[in-house]
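User: I'll paste a sequence; please echo it back and then give the predicted structure.

Assistant: Echoing your sequence first, then the prediction.
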Amino acid sequence: MKRALAVVIGVAMVCLVAYLSWLNPAAVEFRLTTARSIQAPLAVLIVFAFVVGVMLVCTVVAIQAGRRALTAWWHGREQRRIERIETWQEHGAELIWKGETHQGRALLQKAWQRRPEHPVALLALADSLCETGEYRRASELLGQAANQSPTSPDILFALARTHRCAGDGVAAIAVLERLRALHPYAPRVLRALRDAYRDAGRWADATAVQETLTAQIHDPVLGATERTCLGALRYQVATNLDEPTARVEALEALADSRGCGLPVWVSLGDALLASGRADEASVVWERALRTHPHTVLVGRLASIATEERHRDRLRTLLRKLRSDQVRADMVRLLAAMLHLQDGHTEQAAQELDGLQQPEAAPPYVHRLWAQVHRQRGQLEQALATYAKAPGNAPAYRCAACGRLTPEWTGYCTQCHAWDSYRSEVEIGVL
């Protein structure tokens, strides 16, 4: 159909030219320049102009078609190159998963070198190196990539993480500070920088970063977690102040804030005691024991009880604690300990005999019974019972990571948990 239409149009054009030539037989002067001209029939000139126009149109169309063909060829070539690189990347990652680390890393490095602006292969290669402890090589590759792409957040973040895994906290902080300058409110960057400051013991810097992070969080659940972390960091800042007076002021400010936890009360009493204000420390610990019944507070009060009347007051306070807030058997163990300190052997024995679940009592109960037998003069029984006692005093265990320590602490340096240490003879309901 199209060919027939083209033939009809062509015949019509020839007929039109012939008709015009028949109507205009005279020659016409056609000037090429001011000095040159030619004489030709009008029909010939019309045909010439038509042919030139067709040639110009065909030339333009050919140029456009060639341009489109060249662009399509270039895009196809680039797409094939990208697909080949992605194949290397996928195959390299698959080889690493299969345990063929050397071949997999070679393919990943080849993919990254062919396409450095796309760091997926590089990040996979760096992760593989970190898994085998080759942190130095991973840092070198990531550092080279960071120099080539100084604003790439993925590369900078991976470089900081590698430095941190290698134990180079100073280098990790430097990279994270550089990344924070590029993305000052990115939660991922702020958390990593906070953790790096925390590991370095730079509590004030970690607190400042955490304040910025907390302000960015709008989710209620996540916001509560971040506020708890902020309170823990502020607590660390306060407890690491050199002057006892400054510690007291900082901890009092935390105690006045909402959501004050047990560590603040314990450390506030410690700071008051270090400042020579033992009476105020006793008041703080007693008030905290009424609202936050925990063994550490009993231990603190017992440590400053210089007279029997002080221990009588503490025993009375223990008896007045709400039954739904404490474990009765643990309270009896602590009361027995206080009686033994005053030499009240029979009262201590009554407390130990009154245990509701003696089989579930901690090993510390054997040491208390041994002291009872010793004060009664039953030396053989005392020695046999002492052998069952594991140590001089109950240890404190982190509820998050299980770390044991002889002394209570408000912040776990191993897992960074806040208010997680509880005594083996813990009176508070867990």
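The mean pLDDT is 85. Residues 100-143 form one domain.
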